[in-house]
Amino acid sequence: MRTYRIAAIPGDGIGSEVISAGVEALAACAKRDGGFTFAFDHFDWGSERYKTTGAFMPDNGRDLIKSHDAILFGSAGAPDVPDHVTLWGLRLAICQPFDQYANVRPTRILPGIVSPLRNVSGPELDWVIVRENSEGEYAGVGGRVHRGLPEEVATDVSMFTRAGVARIMRFAFALARSRPRKFLTVVTKSNAQRHAMVMWDEIAAEVASEFPDVTWDKMLVDAMTMRMTLKPETLDTIVATNLHADILSDLAAALAGSLGIAPTANLNPERQFPSMFEPIHGSAFDITGKGIANPIGTFWSSVMMLEHLGEPSAAARLMRAIEKVTADKSLHTPDLGGKARTADVTKAVCDALAGDN
Ligand code: ATP
Ligand code: MG
């Protein structure tokens, strides 16, 4: 029987609560399936470690996890550590060297969940956002001079490479092709940003010719926010830069009902390195320790992990269990307006898995 080795990195805040829930659900999933098992290795990397040792993870951290089949990540960020320090110290310190260049964010309104959009309750909103995850606005290029002085100048340079744009575009067209509507929207800001964004548009057109069965259109990111809100049914697969997709996917998560539900996969599609699966939400210190964090975002990310590992029937079974649970309002956590606790939702998902034929 195949055993998948998973590196579990709970991180900060509610990270540990949702990751223990995820580990429990994945173990229940493997038990129900009977064809594979999981071996979880836990790593206590995060802001507490940074505050005592000056580093979020050990120097050999990446070596410790580079042979795992996948990484399950909670959340990184603490109120007393600047966000950019955490982001670069932990998340990007894993994503970038492991070349997880495709960040995939499915968005759907699950049964029982209410969208803030009037008249939208189900199939009208079914998207996958593909975020370029390795360069662009988050390339880390830039600097500051004359710090604190009136003449101070600071730059963040968006850096795009032809190879980087072409590979994410191919990934997005292939993903669009795998979905029933075979439709891709390419998002840029090529009216105002006249170098790199124009290159995006050109490369999109080139790659499109390799996918004649996929229809596609282009959108400026500002107009895209309107289209997502007013005409969600006109969208399916969406590809955008690191920054644009970061913003659009928070909007998407909110339109689908709650940040607590939204999943994401940081994929290294060539499988030279492990891919990383995590809920979109942050560490949520306002509810940490209260036992009310919504674990659905982590469960849905676990579905994506199972798909990536090549266990589609287990993935589908976990997704059915999630949908059965969200459909029951008595199992909604406070972020969804309910009173359920993390443990209630986790138990219900495990029970649904055990009872699924
Ligand atoms: P970070 O800087 O770590 O991204 P943040 O404060 O920007 O944190 P979140 O931690 O995602 O963002 O929290 C935003 C809001 O959503 C908070 O009020 C939080 O309680 C709520 N929230 C986020 N995730 C969940 C969850 N899984 N369950 C319930 N509420 C959540
Ligand atoms: Mg945040």
List its salient traits.
357 residues; alpha/beta; 11 helices; 12 strands; 39% helix; binds adenosine-5'-triphosphate; binds magnesium ion
Can you characterise this structure?
The protein is of the alpha/beta class. It is 39% helix and 22% strand. The strands form 2 sheets. Strands 2-1-3-12-11-4-5-10-8-9 form a 10-stranded mixed β-sheet, sandwiched between helices. It has a two-stranded antiparallel sheet with strand order 6-7. It has 11 helices and 12 strands. It is globular and about 55 Å long. It has helices spanning 15-33, 47-53, 61-65, 83-95, 162-178, 196-208, 221-230, 242-255, 296-309, 312-326, 342-355, and strands at residues 2-11, 36-42, 70-75, 102-108, 126-132, 136-145, 153-159, 183-188, 215-220, 237-240, 263-267, 275-279. Bound molecules: adenosine-5'-triphosphate and magnesium ion. Adenosine-5'-triphosphate (ATP) is lined by residues 14, 75, 77, 83, 259-260, 281-284, 286-287, 293-294, 297, 333, 335. Its EC number is 1.1.1.83, 1.1.1.93, 4.1.1.73. InterPro entries: ICDH/IPMDH, IsoCit/isopropylmalate_DH_CS, IsoPropMal-DH-like_dom, TTC_DH. Has multiple catalytic activities. Apart from catalyzing the oxidation of (+)-tartrate to oxaloglycolate, also converts meso-tartrate to D-glycerate and catalyzes the oxidative decarboxylation of D-malate to pyruvate. It catalyses: (2R,3R)-tartrate + NAD(+) = 2-hydroxy-3-oxosuccinate + NADH + H(+); (2R,3S)-tartrate + NAD(+) = 2-hydroxy-3-oxosuccinate + NADH + H(+); tartrate + NAD(+) = 2-hydroxy-3-oxosuccinate + NADH + H(+); (R)-malate + NAD(+) = pyruvate + CO2 + NADH.
